[in-house]
Amino acid sequence: MNNLVQIKRLQRYRMALLRLKNMGLKKTFSHSLSEETGVSPVLIRKDFSQFGIRGKRRGGYDIDSLLDELKLLFGREKEQNVVLVGLGNIGAALVKYEGYRQSNMNMVAVFDIDPVKRTRRYSVPVYSLESLREVVNAFDVSVAILAVPEFSAQETAHYLVENGISGILNFAPVLLKLPGHVLVNNINIMIELERLMYHIGVRTKPI
Amino acid sequence: MNNLVQIKRLQRYRMALLRLKNMGLKKTFSHSLSEETGVSPVLIRKDFSQFGIRGKRRGGYDIDSLLDELKLLFGREKEQNVVLVGLGNIGAALVKYEGYRQSNMNMVAVFDIDPVKRTRRYSVPVYSLESLREVVNAFDVSVAILAVPEFSAQETAHYLVENGISGILNFAPVLLKLPGHVLVNNINIMIELERLMYHIGVRTKPI
DNA sequence: TAGATTGTTAATCGATTAACAATC
DNA sequence: TAGATTGTTAATCGATTAACAATC
């Protein structure tokens, strides 16, 4: 099993389960989850089975316990701290975003080189990058959101890694070159739009 | 070949090529591109070959022509229009974002149900959702960015599809249920962070 | 020419599915 | 019990890699 792909599927199952729970359902079956997620029923059962999640032979899966097991699997019982670097358009939107609490995450600090931006008042303190190491140590941070301009992304990412960060959610539209032990997830809006357009185009293209 | 995965790789090659071009290089080789992207040299050559992109047996690939061919492949020579729906935190950041032009995309309109938000002045006009169909027809829009709150995402997405949208870049943290012909790309910040944390956690977990 | 690199065909590997046994 | 569903083992399928031929 390609673990990366499998983990993505597990996250997808969880989103579907939240939806079903929200609709007031208590239990579900591999075929219902399949309908919600587009993943085949066998594969769903196999994924669950491989992570030690068991259903009832005839009664399907209990939604609440499924969600609990997934939460456990993703280590979401204990709160995890993140930092944000860069207070531009996207950075500002990300500080104001309210969803962290709900996912048991906590944004403990924001960093920006611009002193003017550091005077802005958010629910999260804004520091100069010089304080990064201190914050990383104090709050045991291993993951950072990188939302700086393209031209400084590589340099800043490198600085983050030097100061103890080992996972980066990168919003800058560049391929970061970092030591092999560092994990990077890229969010690139243009690339996502482009891929949508490509697939739509191909589909509607005359033979 | 899983076309979805292959297309993602091609986009990745392009990002690497832009970096190399930026560094002043004129040509490259499958092994250099491999170093930049983490994809094996054979697979890179195979990908190019399958899309009819040819190198020189001994001289590698010309970066500019490679970029041209990829641009052509992704249909990026002709401008494509998109709309944005939802002017919340993320929506506001996305209107202000400057990268569309560069990718030969054009945001032609923003939609929000809140009349107060419609008075805000951006470089893009803000309308009520009632005008959606008109804009879609006038500007031949097939892709929309959805940045509305979670509770209204499903309903709004459905409305978009009813009015001619067939590709959605979804920022709302929900699994959208839409007709099979509609393509959805999800951008979910919490899920990305969570996956980073999972992989870091697994890696550092004691045996 | 020798060496380096592309491009392709065959082999391998891993992920998904089919078949079916287990059981509630 | 019969029927429905899970969970697993074996088969298939597709994607990646290995091997190598082509050629600049």
Task: Give structural notes.
2 copies of one chain form a homodimer. In chain A, 32% of the residues are buried. Chain A has a 6-stranded parallel β-sheet with strand order 5-4-3-6-7-8, with helices on both faces. In chain A, strands 1-2 form a two-stranded antiparallel ribbon. Chain A has 2 domains: 3-73, Arc Repressor Mutant, subunit A (Orthogonal Bundle), CATH 1.10.10; 80-191, Rossmann fold, CATH 3.40.50.720. The model of chain A has no long low-confidence stretch (mean pLDDT 95). Chain A starts with a helix and ends with a helix. In chain A, 47% of the residues lie in helices and 15% in strands. By secondary structure, chain A is of the alpha/beta class. Chains A and B meet through helix 1, helix 5, helix 6, strand 7 and helix 9 of A and helix 1, helix 5, helix 6, strand 7 and helix 9 of B. Chain A binds a DNA duplex (24 and 24 nucleotides) through residues 1-2, 5-6, 29-31, 40-43, 45-46, 48-49, 54-61.
**Number of beta-strand segments of chain A:** 8
* Cα radius of gyration of chain A in angstroms: 20 Å
Largest interface, counted by CB within 8 Å of the partner chain's CB: A-B, 53 and 53 residues
Classification by helices and strands of chain A: alpha/beta
Q: What is the strand arrangement across the widest sheet of chain A?
A: 5-4-3-6-7-8
Share of helix among residues of chain A?
A: 40-55%
The first-level CATH class of the largest domain in chain A is given as: Alpha Beta
Low-pLDDT regions of chain A:
none
Q: What percentage of amino acids of chain A are in beta strands?
A: 5-15%
Q: Which fold name is given in CATH as the topology of the largest domain in chain A?
A: Rossmann fold
The N- to C-terminal Cα distance of chain A equals 36 Å
Multimerization state: homodimer
**What count of structural domains of chain A?**
2
- The number of helices of chain A is 9
Order of helices and strands of chain A: HEHHEHEHHEEHEHEEH
The shape of chain A is: globular
Give the mean pLDDT of chain A.
Answer: 95
CATH architecture of the largest domain in chain A: 3-Layer(aba) Sandwich
- CATH superfamily label of the largest domain in chain A: NAD(P)-binding Rossmann-like Domain
Largest sheet of chain A: 6 strands, parallel
